Amino acid sequence: MFIRILRKLDYWIGSLSEHLLLICGTMILLMAFLATFGVIMRHIFDPEPYSYEFSYMFLLFSGVLAVAGVEKLDQHVRNDLLASRFPNTMKIIIINIISPLLAMAFCTVLIWKSMDNALYALDIGQTSQSTWRIPIAPVKFFIPAGFILLQIILFSKFVKGINLLLRGGKGPEEGTDTG
Fold this sequence. Notes:
By secondary structure, the protein is an all-alpha fold. It has one domain (2-78, 86-166). Helices cover 74% and strands 0% of the residues. It is elongated. The two termini are 26 Å apart.
């Protein structure tokens, strides 16, 4: 029962992460167009603040939300130089158990401090410094939201690592190790 719930949650989170990666890629493409538009407007016509405002918001969204998707797809940068020298069981412990635990501890601090910052921005009514003066708090709430999603993915990876360790390094279906 517990494993079935974890698989459904894992599928839902994986789907959400893939959609977020697609949205983040689109935002990066939009940032390129906005930067080009801003330069053209600044050099040919009058400067306008909107392209800069949207660009930094899109950069924040794509940076924070893409981290969870990259972790879910296991496409992040990892140096296996040290772990590759250990036996398979120790490799599973290092890569699939200890690393997610350390990352979850780091994410907990990031969630806590970024939530503090977002709540403070909401409390004081912080706005951007441009002439547009958009509220900053809604933008800042994306930071803890992205790290909460990353925290869930890391917890899922940790549970899979424990399961892999208990199975002796064999995957549930294919019988191969994932380390």
